[in-house]
Amino acid sequence: MKRKKQEEAEPIEEHDSGFVGPMTLFDTFPHNDTFAEMRTLELLPNPSTENAEIYTFMHNRQDYGVIDMEDAKLSAKLRLVTSANGNAQAATVNACVNIALLRYGWKTKAVYLNNQLITPQSSKENELEYTHDFLTTVPSEYLDDKQINLMIRDTPGHMDVITNLHHSTNATGNTNIGARQRYNAINRAVIHTCIDKLDLLGRVKRYVPTSFDIKVVLTRLEKTKVIYGTAAECTLLDLRMREECRYYKITHRYVAIPVPQNSRHIQHKDIFNGARPTRLISKIVSQDRYNGSHILSPYHVAFPDIARFAVSINEAEIPPVITNSAEAYVNLRQTLDRRHSEMPCTYNEYVSDYGMMVSHKFYPIQQAEI
Q1: Distance CA 252, CA 231 (A)
Q2: What domain of life does the UniProt record list for this protein's source (predicted)?
């Protein structure tokens, strides 16, 4: 009998000093120096005019550093002026700005790393940011800074009330206290130094080498969604801003679907292309509010008059099925995992002003109808 040929043993994988590889993203650091450095990159936009429509912030590559991209700091000096001559608005003008202008005041936002676009583009950037904030933050997270970033929401139940914004809270008909507070922050000769975060790469810690070229391009939102108050007076105003950006993704897709008037049963199939989303957020807004109107708060969403709301994949329904606002609110609390912590709104406020219907997380399926 022939002896079976002995199989050769597989080579043993070896590593150097426990590291799979060196930090190839960086040039070699100096070996003989021990140092700690804190560097702030302050970027002025181009163009830097106060009424520009597009703001571009660029960082040119540098050696030996990293940038914390979790929260880029964006600051601007904001003022309301008359469009015709750039003068401060008169004391009798019944108009203010909408909430969180530096966070929600952008129609589109594009982030480039080494000239490669790394963020999806949407003409509803303000809607995405607002919805994401509403579902992920609690009041104590933004109330402390509301005088800095103007995260002063319209008063629930009175979000569309624009009466007497320029009068004190004791004036008859002035019930939108939030809008009044924003009027106090920016009005007439008052210039507000606003500082806010700009979410570039999502809410996960992300460090980028300063050897990368970084560019952020922001396009201003329509004036109808920035200035709030009497339509005739808002039309005569402009928001001027002189900005700078300092660097110290959860991905959303926005799909607008027209709803026929007076319809009792509405069904949409396969509303997404490609991979299914892990969470579906639905809300119904009027055409006027969707297009933008000075007299309508762009973020007011009343809970719709529905008898049943359900999501299905390949004709299999995803629980829960929502039949009323109470079920929707409880479902929202469970979805946000807020059983023992703050909700972003009370039940009454949810019905009157924050009526989003949010599905539980479900795993994406590539080939499916939703």
Answers
A1: 31
A2: Eukaryota
Q: Which domain holds residue 61?
A: 51-153+190-221
Are residue 270 and residue 122 in the same domain, yes or no? no
Residue pLDDT, tens place only, 202-212: 655 566 777 77
Nearest to 275 by CA among 370, 361, 356: 370
User: Are both 290 and 211 inside the same structural domain?
Assistant: no
Angle at 119 between CA 213 and CA 23, to 5 degrees: 45
- Calculate the alpha carbon distances from 176 to 78, 162, 194 in Å: 22, 7, 22
280 and 139 within one domain: no
Token pair belonging to 268: 């949409």
pLDDT the model gives residue 351: 93
Mean pLDDT of the chain: 76
- pLDDT computed for residue 326 by the predictor: 85
Residues 279, 217 within the same domain: no
Rounded to an integer, the average pLDDT of 41-63 is 73
Domain count for the chain, please give it.
2
Q: Does 265 fall in a domain?
A: yes
Q: How confident is the model at residue 172 (pLDDT cuts 50, 70, 90)?
A: low
In tens, the pLDDT along 337-358 reads 776 667 888 889 999 999 999 8
**What 3-state class would DSSP assign to 345?**
coil
Q: Is residue 45 part of a domain?
A: no
Of how many residues is the chain composed? 370
Percent of the chain with pLDDT over 90: 11
Q: From the CB of residue 268, how many other CB atoms can be counted at a distance below 10 Å?
A: 9
Other Cβ atoms closer than 10 A to 199: 20
Is residue 17 a part of any domain in this protein?
Answer: no
